[in-house]
Design a protein that fits this description.
It is a single chain. This protein has a single domain (2-114), classed as Metal Binding Protein, Guanine Nucleotide Exchange Factor, Chain A, CATH 2.170.150. The chain is built from one helix and ten strands, in the order βββαβββββββ. Helix content is 6%, strand content 43%.
């Protein structure tokens, strides 16, 4: 089980399954939303994600045609993004919001055409 929260603790969640995919997204929208070179998300079935505190404090931004990005209305922590119409049964959760140790065997690199020039590979 993965558990997580926003920076201020107003929102808490639990996830009862393992992710079906994990990715570093280098798209410009993720860079701007996270204020970082990329965003790391793990994708889960929406039914496996339960908000245990503060679900009403999630703010929503429709960043593109049908992508909804959700974040804490108090501290601004990025929590999730999902497609409102195309794939409503899936949700991607920001791995940085997990409170437990998280590991995965594979991380896909998405939208590398937008990868920042100053990010060096290790």
């Amino acid at each position: 089980m993965n558990i997580g929260s926003c920076l201020c603790g107003s929102i808490k969640f639990e996830i009862v399954s393992d992710p079906v995919a994990v990715s570093h997204c280098h798209c410009k929208m993720c860079q701007k939303q996270h204020g970082a070179a990329f965003a790391t998300y793990a994708r889960f079935k929406r039914a496996d994600v339960e908000y245990t505190k503060g679900k009403e404090k999630l703010s929503v931004f429709n960043s593109s045609e049908d992508v909804l990005r959700k974040f804490c209305s108090i501290c601004g922590s990025n929590i999730e993004w999902g497609c409102s119409e195309r794939y409503p049964e899936w949700v991607a959760i920001a791995v940085g919001s997990f409170d437990n140790d998280f590991s995965t065997s594979e991380i896909k690199e998405l939208h590398q055409e937008s990868k920042v020039c100053w990010l060096r590979s290790s």
